[in-house]
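Colleagues,

For the teaching module next term, I've prepared a clean inverse folding example: a structure given as tokens, and then the sequence designed for it. I'd like students to try predicting residues themselves before seeing the answer, so please don't circulate the second half yet.
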């Protein structure tokens, strides 16, 4: 069993059936959200694309019991599972010419600050490295400090600026790039971060509760 199998948050490949949940997070995370069609294209046709989702267990909603018929049905039915698996974040990258270009990453606002974005990024860097990426790169809004902090934590450096990259407000983008993913020092860094990440995930997501905003 892989160590990650015992974590309270699981990473899985994104499927077309996930798109309803993905788009709900997309709409509250980005000023210019991608459409369902854009994601469908990525998943069905873009051979360079690799997308993942993060899931965790949350308490199942209770429907209540309204009348004697509901009580009767409940007596003969097994109790429903107390938890259900909820999609709480996603990310993706394109593998092009030995470079992983991270195209998106987002976490449900109700689940931010619980190491889920970090788990997605760490998993993606590991996946990209295994598939032969030498470096990972991305664009990030100059105003997006929380995302930049996450990337800096994972060794990304600001290597350039794309002027007016975002069409919704003409904001500039920093180009951020990792060192060589396969290098000894970077692999050591990933290993160290992974240990701390697993501990934090267990601490912050051990009890499957859902915060409301
Ligand atoms: C960026 C995002 C994915 C981070 O996800 P998250 O699950 O909340 O982040 P985590 O809890 O895993 O935090 C990991 C690291 O990110 C950074 N970080 C996350 N939230 C932060 C905040 N509010 N302020 C500063 N740094 C922050 C920190 O470096 C943190 O590590 P630390 O706790 O050791 O300091 C999330 O904020 C998000 O979905 N934002 C909207 C979409 C977006 O902007 N995507 C990036 C596009 S380039």
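(Answer key — instructors only)
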């Amino acid at each position: 069993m892989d160590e990650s199998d015992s974590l309270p948050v699981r990473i899985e490949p994104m499927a077309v059936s996930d798109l309803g949940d993905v788009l709900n997070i997309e709409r509250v995370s980005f000023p210019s959200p991608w459409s369902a069609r854009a994601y469908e294209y990525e998943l069905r046709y873009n051979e360079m694309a690799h997308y993942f989702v993060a899931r965790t267990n949350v308490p199942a909603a209770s429907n209540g019991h309204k009348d004697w018929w509901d009580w009767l049905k409940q007596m003969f039915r097994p109790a429903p599972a107390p938890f259900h698996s909820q999609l709480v974040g996603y990310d993706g990258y394109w593998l092009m010419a030995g470079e992983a270009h991270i195209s998106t990453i987002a976490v449900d606002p109700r689940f931010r600050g619980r190491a889920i974005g970090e788990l997605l990024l760490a998993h993606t860097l590991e996946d990209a490295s295994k598939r032969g990426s030498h470096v990972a790169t991305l664009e990030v809004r100059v105003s997006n400090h929380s995302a930049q902090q996450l990337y800096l934590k994972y060794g990304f450096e600001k290597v350039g600026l794309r002027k007016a990259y975002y069409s919704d407000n003409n904001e500039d983008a920093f180009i951020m790039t990792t060192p060589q993913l396969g290098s000894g020092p970077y692999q050591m860094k990933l290993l160290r971060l992974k240990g701390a990440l697993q501990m934090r995930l267990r601490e912050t997501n051990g009890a499957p509760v859902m915060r409301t905003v």
